[in-house]
Write a structure and sequence with these properties.
Blueprint: E1 8-12, H1 13-25, E2 32-36, H2 38-43, H3 46-54, E3 60-63, H4 66-74, E4 81-83, H5 91-96, E5 100-103, H6 106-118, E6 124-129, H7 144-152, E7 157-163, H8 175-196, E8 201-203, H9 207-212, E9 220-223, H10 234-237, E10 244-249, E11 252-256, E12 261-262, E13 268-269, E14 274-279, E15 297-300, E16 303-306, E17 316-319, E18 330-334, H11 340-345, H12 351-356, E19 363-367
The structure holds pyridoxal-5'-phosphate.
């Protein structure tokens, strides 16, 4: 029998602090550390994670959207929070909740300054995002005269940081591209600092950038996936521990005779006598339908049990013909002993997608293992 009685996502705060310490050991003591806690801290629990990291030496937090920052402020998180992609309609909330916006275009710069002036702000911290090759968000070189003129003509804002984002920091086959991005960032920052007359914090690496490009750490590094236990590399994974374990229990076991089917649209037809275990989680919980028909698996008693037929909304059926197990037994979907990266890999996905997809209806259980 299991110690749990429903599907849970266990979140190990000791693994989090170990991962944090490891990542810190890979940067200089004076380099600041920004913890990325967007998307519920990669599917875990952003409040629990931010609280734990607040007690460690984290300098900054980042979220993607303004409402995510609000949620942290509501939970009494007081450290600076960079909002990576705030939409102009939320700038009022940004200022009211002391969140720090990423400003990535002339339009967003003008809109933010207009509001900051109307709200009589002085030196409100903003973060300028530069595009160095990802072509997603960001200013380019041509915008620098506009940026500096605009900023120097108001007292309402100050540039707290200037940053960029790497497109392929985990892929060493694309090292030339990454080095070019880093070089572009360096040149842009020198140019901006000269015209601005002061030096904001500079940062451009994510987790894989921390690990692969120590020369590009600048004043601050940004880590998400590393904190949650993945290094995007088999060797680096050994130094990190996944903080989240998605666990469930067996609801019911069926003996399926040869010729019988299992699940919607007779997705599985037994060619021989089969034992099928029904589990209480499905595509609405973050198990993609593409895991059906044997592609995906869970771990029961240390053995792989593959999915039979179609993934349902709230359930999956798995093959336990060769596994000694009972109703109520514990099932691991992913965790430190059942890699989310491997499971994601079979459907050409990545750890990031699988772990962030765990639905909010699944209970989060905070542990310290
Ligand atoms: C999500 C994100 C990160 C974190 O990347 P990881 O690979 O998870 O470390 C860093 N910077 C930006 C701009 C991001 O959007």
């Amino acid at each position: 029998m299991s110690t749990i009685n429903e599907t849970v996502l266990e979140i190990d705060l000791n693994a989090l602090s170990q991962n944090f310490k490891y990542l810190k050991s890979r940067i200089k003591p004076e380099t600041k550390f920004l913890a990325v806690v967007k998307a519920y801290a990669y599917g875990s629990d952003s409040v629990a994670i931010a609280k734990e990291l607040s007690n460690l030496e984290v300098d900054y937090f980042a979220v993607a959207y303004t409402n995510e920052g609000e949620q942290l402020r509501d939970a009494a998180i007081t450290k600076p929070i960079l909002v990576l992609h705030p939409l102009p309609g939320t700038y009022e909330v940004i200022i009211n909740r002391c969140l720090e916006p990423s400003i990535y275009s002339r339009k967003t710069l003008k809109a933010f300054i207009e509001l900051a002036e109307a709200k009589e702000q002085t030196n409100y911290p903003i973060h300028l995002k530069f595009n160095t090759g990802l072509n997603r968000l960001g200013f380019t070189e041509n915008d620098i005269p506009f940026i500096t003129e605009t900023i120097l003509s108001t007292k309402s804002v100050k540039v707290q940081s200037m940053f960029s984002h790497l497109a392929a920091s985990e892929d060493l086959e694309l090292k030339d591209f990454t080095l070019k991005q880093i070089d572009t960032f360096k040149k842009l920052s020198e140019n901006l600092i000269k015209k601005l007359g002061y030096a904001p914090l500079l940062h451009c690496v994510n987790t894989s950038g921390i690990l692969n490009y120590p020369e590009a750490h600048f004043n601050m590094v940004r880590s998400g996936i590393g904190l949650y236990g993945f290094g995007n590399d088999a060797e680096e994974n050994k130094n990190l521990k996944p903080i989240a374990t998605l666990k469930t229990i067996i609801s019911q076991i069926h003996e399926v005779s040869k010729g019988e089917s299992v699940g919607y649209n007779l997705g599985f037809i037994a060619e021989k006598h089969t034992r099928s275990a029904t589990l209480p989680l499905g595509h609405a919980d973050g198990i993609p339908r593409s895991y059906g028909h044997g592609k995906g698996w869970v771990t029961i008693g240390g053995k792989k049990a593959h999915i039979l037929g179609n993934v349902c909304m709230d359930m999956i059926m798995v093959d336990v013909t060769n596994i000694d197990c009972n109703e109520g037994d514990e099932v691991i979907v992913f965790g430190p002993t059942a890699s989310a990266e491997d499971l994601a890999g079979v459907i050409n996905s990545i750890s990031y997608e699988l772990i962030t997809a765990v639905s909010q209806r699944i209970k989060r259980l905070i542990v310290r293992n």
